[in-house]
Amino acid sequence: MKRVLFVGDGKHDIGVPDWPTDEPFPARGVVPHLAERVAAVDRAHSLAMPWSHPRLSRFQPKNRAQRTRGYEAKVRAAMLQIERGVLRVDGLVCVVDEDNDPERRNLPDVLHVHASERCPIAAGVAVRSIEAWTLGARTALAQALRTKVDMVEKTCPSSSVEELYEGAGDRSRRPKHILQRLADELARMKDSLELREEIASLTDPDELCKACPIGFAPFAVAVRAAFGPPPVVVGSTP
Predict the structure, then answer these.
(1) What does the alpha-carbon distance between residue 188 and residue 195 come to, in Å, rounded to a whole number?
(2) Residues 100, 14: contact at Cβ < 8 Å?
(3) pLDDT less than 50: residues of the chain
(4) Are residues 163 and 50 in the same domain?
(5) How many angstroms separate the CA atoms of 126 and 104, rounded?
(6) Buried b or exposed e, range 113-135, using 16+ CB within 10 angstroms
(7) Which of 27, 150, 183, 195 has a CB 3.0–4.6 Å from the CB of 48, allowing a cystine?
(8) Domain count across the chain
(9) For 181-198, what is each residue's pLDDT tens digit?
(10) Residue 136 φ then ψ, to 5°
């Protein structure tokens, strides 16, 4: 099992530290749980940093055309610390939200070029946001909300979850609003980091790959290629 450094955009992606710190913190959130489902990743002992972390954020490009180079610089900064043993992990998993910027879909290929034997890299783009990787797991959603899949289906839009966008004029097309509505109406709960982690921990990767073929499916392939398949649980079907 591999300990990795997760780099992402926010608390629902990779978690947040329990106290203010400039150090990497224990990984939480949707991405570590999903990575553990598809590859030999030791989520419980992995670390996380936001893209804005002082150790990575050497500059913040203002021009859209420079953003890819900005992510590359941050990945190289993380790799250097891993290769030198400053960060004692076995590789790097990076995720960004597409955020209605199709150019970001090229990032996995761009970042993977920098992978080394000492620091394998798996990168992914959540289309159009990380909420798609929760809303696309309908069976896990129903289990976490203690309801039936058909009840989840009635509340979710019938279109692809990768078409939902937080900046949409229609609130019913905003993924965060949909998640909160599901939690409130079906389970009298609040959308939270803990709820999203539970959903991710129950997610069937094959189901999510079908729901998110542009974002999650290639990410799952990349994580497994970088760190190997997850261990087979005795008594389970391989």
Answers:
(1) 12
(2) no
(3) 59-61, 63-66, 237-238
(4) no
(5) 10
(6) eebeeebbbbbbbbbbbbbbbbb
(7) 27
(8) 2
(9) 999 999 999 999 999 999
(10) -75, -15
